[in-house]
Amino acid sequence: LMFQLTATPASALADEPVHIRVTGLPPFQMVTFKASLKDEKGNLFHSKAFYRANETGKVDLEQDPAFGGDYVGVHPMGLFWSLKPERAFQRLLKQDVMASPFLVTLDLYDSVCFQDLATAQPTASQTLQRWFSGPGMQRMQIREGRVRGALFLPPGEGPFPGVIDLFGGIGGLVEFRASLLSAHGFAVLALAYFAYEDLPKQLQEVELEYFEEAVNLLLAHPKIQKSGIGVISVCKGAEIGLAMACYLKQVVATVCINGFNAIFTVPLRYKDLVVKPIHSFKEHIQIHVSGAVRICHCMEDPRDELNRQSVLPVEKAQGRILFIVGENDECLNSRVYAEQAVDQLQSHGKSSGRMLMYPGAGHLIEPPYAPLCYASWSPGFSRPILWGGDPAAHAAAQEHAWEEIQKFFRQYLSPTRSKL
Ligand SMILES: *[C@@H]1O[C@H](CO)[C@@H](O)[C@H](O)[C@H]1NC(C)=O
């Protein structure tokens, strides 16, 4: 018997689909697919799924359903988005985005393997390279003025549409989304704002001038378009992203993924303006059965009269805003916040805000095929934080949202965009 396992392309960007198929199996043979990956810290992630060959001895993950394992049904990329950490509460994050890809090993077993696969011998294997940067891309470490980050440039002279990428409470410099977006033709600055190099160790306040400096740095770059800057942001980063949209006229297209519509926890400062934060209450923490904590009930409602002064004036935003909401976000009441922001825009007669809601998606909506991280350790917390999300629905949201984000930036960052 000659099994033939094919997975193509063998080397691709991490957000590109892979076509997996097997031929040469006995008719109706049950098989197990296993995927495994080791991150740069040595943490192991794996997934498996059971399939049955048809009468011609073939399995094609684009057409055939999994009967069991980490997912069921037709999910061509299920083995990727259902990767789970061997040690609980680890989050898969690519660190060095330029020099190496993630290596995903696919193993095929000619039976249904429920037990530990470590000792079983696969009948076929293939290793796939999943890259977070494209050929010819450039990464430039940024240490200019106060700005700390990494700028990714596509190959060629440009000018390219410029985007700033902001993560949240994780701190430090997170590059994988910026580099992947840059691989699609954008100049993207992954911007650190605390817990990195000489930046403050903890976020004591959000000083908007720091972010304005980063915007102006991009606008002065010869390979970046002058017509305005985009922002892609998540969680606390999306609160800052929304503040940038409100107060910085150079920011013309902002993507806020599961963020806030008001200033929370630490004050926002911009020139003479100081916006006081809405406080949170630790005693409202809920402990989930997994041992992780649900913090979404700790934050007061920005609609309360006392909190009005902390709500961001979205109606002042000159540009477009795309709110991306996972309806199973267990970390923030992001749907309430986004709805409130869009309502506030509409009550001022503005249609510049749009909301994409994803049923079943959790807090950490990332580029496609990134495995769902349901809960993980986060700096400053003594327990893991619950992020939420149903794996299949979350994966579908990531695929859809990533396309929409790119369309949004292409439409509103192009120099010929309508000024009306
Ligand atoms: C068997 O599966 C292959 C791959 O999915 C498909 O192309 C073929 O049409 C199937 N054959 C039958 C008889 O269903």
What does this structure look like?
Residues 15-144 form the Acyl-CoA thioester hydrolase/bile acid-CoA amino acid N-acetyltransferase domain. It comes from Loxodonta africana. Keywords: Fatty acid metabolism, Lipid metabolism. The active site is at residues 235, 329, 363. By secondary structure, the chain is of the alpha/beta class. The chain has 2 domains: 4-131, Immunoglobulin-like (Sandwich), CATH 2.60.40.2240; 138-413, Alpha/Beta hydrolase fold, catalytic domain (Rossmann fold), CATH 3.40.50. The protein has 6 helices and 25 strands. The strands form 6 sheets. It has an 8-stranded mixed sheet with strand order 11-12-14-13-16-17-22-23, sandwiched between helices. Strands 2, 4, 5, 7, 8, 9 and 10 form a 7-stranded mixed sheet that branches. The longest helix is centred in the C-terminal third of the chain and has 23 residues, at 391-413. The chain is globular and about 75 Å long. The model has no long low-confidence stretch (mean pLDDT 95). Bound molecules: 2-acetamido-2-deoxy-beta-D-glucopyranose.
